Amino acid sequence: MKALVTLTIAGAMTLGGPATVGTATATERTAVASDSVTPLEVVNLGLTTREAMNVQCGLREYNGYTGAIDGLLGPESWKAFQGLLQARYGYTGAIDGIVGPGTISALQRALQQYFEYDGAIDGIAGPQTTAAFKRAAADAAQYC
Questions:
Q1: Residue 128 has what pLDDT?
Q2: Are 84 and 109 in contact (CB under 8 A)?
Q3: How far apart are CA 10 and CA 56, in angstroms?
Q4: pTM of the entire structure?
Q5: What values do phi and psi take at 106, rounded to 5?
Q6: Segment among 11-15, 99-103, 111-115, 117-121 with least mean pLDDT
Q7: Cβ atoms of residues 20 and 43 within 8 Å
Q8: DSSP class of residue 122?
Q9: Which pLDDT score, from 0 to 100, does residue 62 have?
Q10: Interatomic CA distance for residues 44 and 6, integer angstroms
């Protein structure tokens, strides 16, 4: 059951977009298409590349994620996670891959239920949130 929950949490973590939430760090990349520039944001919420790959493997296994297993939690990874958060953890926002307070709050609810998160459900990805997310990523390693 915990494995399914890990994948549920992996699927629920749909982060990426122009916002940085709390202490989450974002690495911005730029893709050039014709005359336009489109920012692509990666929000790993403190996970290493290996840990983020674990999350992506969990998303692939249980949530139908078909994106790259590259350790970069970008918009496609977070869209998959938002879908799960919407289905099970009260996320009511758009499935857009943008990490915002609603995505983080739903993630915190999932982490609280399964990965010893005991902080506030406040939509801020602080140290307790990132520590619990690391525990979820470690549990998802079995799917890589």
A1: 98
A2: no
A3: 7
A4: 0.74
A5: -65, -40
A6: 11-15
A7: yes
A8: S
A9: 82
A10: 16
